[in-house]
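Let's inspect one such protein example.
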Amino acid sequence: MNPRISIIIPVYNGASTVADTLRALQAQIGVTDVMEVLVIDNNSTDNSVEVVRGFPVKLLQQPKPGPSAARNAGLAAACGEIIVCLDADTLPTRRWLAELLTPFEDPEVLIVGGTILTYNPQTAAERYCDSSGIFNPQRNVKAEVFPFAVGMNMAVRTQILKEAGGWEEAFKWGEDIDVSQRILQRHPGSLAHAERAVIFHRNRSNIDALASQAWGYGRGAAIVYRRFPETARWRIRHSITFLVCVLGRWFNAGFAALARALHLMEVARAELCYCHALWGWSFCRGFLVEYYWVRTESKSKWK
């Protein structure tokens, strides 16, 4: 099967990484003649636009901030039968696209998620993202509640995506969970995982960025729970369990710090314990604040 493919890449201040992403696309095996690449600049203030213009791609502008708005601009201009989403800080392997398309040979498959690995982890934050499975596509695809394909490495049939209304632009986080859920509500069982469709992702490199990411992911998860209460309803007991789990992580992190001070534990292992506690705490705070206290447009719309 050789459908025409539209690859959509939002970019915001990605001058240092987007060229590597586009070069990796030029090196894809067996599919370059059936794909188009649309890069959507999302108000970059660096020289991202100049970098992108050096490649044979279609460059679009989307002044409305956010990856959902950028992807919708790409969707409106796309010609392909299948939409492929990629981030501007990723490195696809040479057979990534061919492998991502393989599950579509089954006409029942409508949405596919690929595999995401960490690119050259050097810092404690990067090593934690690599070892924790935050972007574990196989786990996400097979999740009992809200299965989804991660937005930085996913493909979906264009017509199905348009019927679902594209990406919800009110979402700042969790937009990939939301769009996957809307498609699966109409077409249960249509989500697949392409294990060999591998990309490398540049994860957050410092602790503050890691905590900010976890906070945003928590808020996104809360919005998804509010929007789809018929799928899974969040209750007070879940919040209590959540907090107890986070407290347990901090206890382990404190124990690890003590063990490191006494030279009973390797520094790298103690750092992972700290990052695990920090991620859980930031995610928990983001979720609970968004779910119980924040009054946003999305809350009034979906409550």
